Amino acid sequence: xxxxxxxxxxxxxxxxxxxxxxxxxxxxxxxxxxxxxxxxxxxxxxxxxxxxxxxxxxxxxxxxxxxxxxxxxxxxxxxxxxxxxxxxxxxxxxxxxxxxxxxxxxxxxxxxxx
Amino acid sequence: xxxxxxxxxxxxxxxxxxxxxxxxxxxxxxxxxxxxxxxxxxxxxxxxxxxxxxxxxxxxxxxxxxxxxxxxxxxxxxxxxxxxxxxxxxxxxxxxxxxxxxxxxxxxxxxxxx
Lengths: 114, 114
Prior knowledge:
With 114 residues, chain A is mainly beta.
């Protein structure tokens, strides 16, 4: 199956700093990737759709200036949480969509903002 | 708005019992339906998917799902569960999205007692 990686797997940062999370499709090219938040015992909440070479599409209620997304290549999308605050602490998951319209998920990044 | 509903939030079974997890979707047009599983501490993995054709879909690890258009349902089944099936199960529908974004159900926690 298709493999998607995320880095880092876990990050702790101070309030007010920025954190960058990388999402890579390792064995396929993905023109579209997605970023989700997952809360404990909850389903995934789609934050934004990341399109290679163009601006990301954000879901309602997600601040685009706070969660910066860059999809510079067909195998890499990055999510930068700017000026992070404790309420941004969460589990961030990315997925990459294959040409066969199937999403494969990364292992997630646990962000803790102190 | 399109939605996906999973009726069972928490299911507890003994090993060897049969499993059926309900999933209903709201969109009446073309559907791309998925079941994902998230084992404790791991990332979401694709169990199976339905795009068209035979409405009975077989996936990995002995799981299958049946697409019933008249009932807007895509229930997941396994004839005999194992302790290792303990996990969170998510149903998702691509629906009318032209970006390929998925609409997830709330998830079902399956606990299999040895």
